[in-house]
């Protein structure tokens, strides 16, 4: 019997706090030894010479096989997690959207049927409550105990949104049950007013999606959600922050000591409102909510990521084929909201964050892995390289230079919003619980090897 199942040798190990040369010994899916020179027998040796070894990426905001606008997002748990693995991500946390009239138990069952036996990397599941009743409210403690330790509410989207009273009561209930409430913050009434006005003027093209939901729509809702959280002393996590209007609200609350946290996504750091003006309905590729913003927001969002006003980068991966986007040919209101991104997150943030000098390697690890593990109750099982942690690792070659094109990706969709983007640094080997799942751009793992993560209480960071 060999001492190790795998040794990752000769790499530079990077964690949220340290950067050092070490070999990593792995047994039964866990990291069991870290040493400057491991020479014992191992079943498999992965040579990481000249490369970084990061904790596997964690993307805590994905939508696999999600019903939206009369269709479903085009990646399922198999295709979407293959894409994630090929891009250096070893854990996702997906949103189980409650169908009207269903209990949370039934919602979890629907999502577990989509994911169990199909995902190739580990996954957690958030409860996305859309139909709050007294019975549903009373189910929250049990769901949190079973590892669905975060609840998301939409403040907009007809048929899925909740009112302020529901948000307030949910914040209280989730907090007293040891979980974390997340919100999609946009002002429903302002969007509704703007949309009706634009449509009455015959303005139906994709750009009007953005113009119907300006930055103040997001800033107002973000500030309101924060104030509701403060009223009941509950922590709050604001998903997909795009702009100064919302980030300034989070910054102020944090400066005053309130447990408010948030994320942003690569699209809000690298793409802009101008993309909606691409000809031939190409603007539909970028229809997502909240929408892409004026470029002037980019430095504000990058700074928030560096200074921990927002703690992490997720993708909000929610792909639709162009054929599906064409449901909205006649009106931007019918374009399914969402875009792909799960596969490029690590490389985009490394290239435009680390290589461009916006932050260092340790901050890169914090925002792509460690902080998501902490916020969503998976640390230190996930999100670090330490003895006892899951052997979820990505061997990352900082010298690979490439230009993004759809054909190099594994996402089940026919475009990428990042077509033509230059990358410097790319994952070469992704290891999930001690098994290589992706190598040199190819998936080599197993369908169903990913398991549901029973998540614990959030950490405030
Ligand atoms: O446009 C988006 N973001 N679609 C997915 C659902 C959501 O709001 O996160
Ligand atoms: Zn959202
Ligand atoms: Zn989302």
TrEMBL record:
The keyword Hydrolase applies. GO terms for cellular component: cytosol. Gene3D superfamilies: Metal-dependent hydrolases, Urease, subunit C, domain 1. SUPFAM superfamilies: Composite domain of metallo-dependent hydrolases, Metallo-dependent hydrolases. Its EC number is 3.5.2.2. Pfam families: Amidohydro_1 (PF01979), Urease_alpha (PF00449). GO terms for molecular function: dihydropyrimidinase activity; metal ion binding. It comes from the Bacteria. The keyword Translocase does not apply. Residues 4-47 form the Urease alpha-subunit N-terminal domain. Residues 52-437 form the Amidohydrolase-related domain. Keywords: Hydrolase, Metal-binding. The modification N6-carboxylysine is found at residue 152. Carbamylation allows a single lysine to coordinate two divalent metal cations. Its cofactor is Zn(2+). Belongs to the metallo-dependent hydrolases superfamily. Hydantoinase/dihydropyrimidinase family. This is Dihydropyrimidinase.
């Amino acid at each position: 019997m060999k001492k190790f199942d795998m040794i990752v040798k000769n790499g530079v190990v990077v964690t949220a706090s340290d950067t050092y040369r070490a070999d990593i010994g792995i047994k039964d899916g866990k990291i069991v030894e870290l040493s400057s020179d491991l020479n014992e027998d191992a079943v498999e040796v992965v040579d990481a010479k000249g490369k970084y070894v990061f904790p596997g990426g964690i993307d805590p905001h994905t939508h696999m096989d999600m019903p939206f606008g009369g269709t479903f997002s085009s990646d399922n748990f198999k295709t979407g997690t293959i894409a994630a693995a090929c891009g250096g991500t070893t854990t996702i946390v997906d949103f189980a959207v409650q169908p009207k009239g269903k209990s949370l138990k039934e919602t979890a069952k629907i999502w577990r049927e989509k994911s169990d036996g199909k995902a190739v990397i580990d996954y957690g599941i958030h409860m996305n409550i859309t139909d709050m009743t007294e019975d549903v409210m009373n189910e929250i403690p049990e769901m949190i105990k079973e590892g669905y330790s975060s609840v998301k509410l939409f403040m907009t989207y007809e048929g899925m949104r909740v009112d302020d009273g529901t948000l307030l009561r949910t914040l209280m209930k989730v907090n007293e049950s040891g979980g974390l409430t997340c919100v999609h913050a946009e002002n429903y009434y302002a969007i509704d007013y703007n949309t009706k006005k634009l449509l009455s003027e015959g303005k139906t093209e994709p750009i009007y999606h953005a113009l119907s939901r300006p930055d103040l729509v997001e800033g107002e809702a973000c500030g309101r959600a924060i104030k509701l959280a403060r009223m009941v002393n509950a922590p709050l996590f604001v998903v997909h922050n795009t702009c100064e209007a919302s980030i300034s609200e989070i910054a102020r609350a944090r400066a005053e000591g309130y447990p408010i946290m948030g994320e942003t996504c690569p699209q809000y750091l690298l793409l802009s409102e101008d993309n909606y003006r691409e000809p031939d309905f190409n603007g539909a590729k970028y229809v997502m909510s909240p929408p892409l913003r004026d470029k002037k927001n980019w430095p504000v969002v990058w700074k928030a990521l560096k200074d921990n006003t927002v703690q992490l980068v997720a993708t909000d991966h929610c792909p639709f084929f162009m054929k599906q986007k064409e449901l909205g040919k006649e009106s931007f209101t019918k374009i399914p909201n969402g875009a792909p991104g799960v596969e490029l997150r690590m490389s985009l943030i490394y290239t435009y964050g680390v290589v461009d000098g916006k932050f260092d390697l340790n901050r890169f690890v914090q925002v792509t892995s460690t902080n998501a593990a902490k916020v969503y109750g998976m640390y230190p099982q996930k999100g670090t390289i330490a003895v006892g942690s899951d052997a979820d690792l990505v061997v990352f070659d900082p010298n690979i230079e490439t230009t993004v094109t759809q054909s190099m990706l594994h996402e089940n969709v026919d475009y990428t919003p990042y077509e033509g983007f230059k990358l410097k640094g790319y994952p070469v080997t992704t290891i999930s619980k001690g098994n290589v799942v992706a190598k040199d751009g190819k998936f080599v793992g197993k369908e169903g090897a990913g398991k549901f993560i029973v998540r614990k209480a959030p950490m405030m960071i």
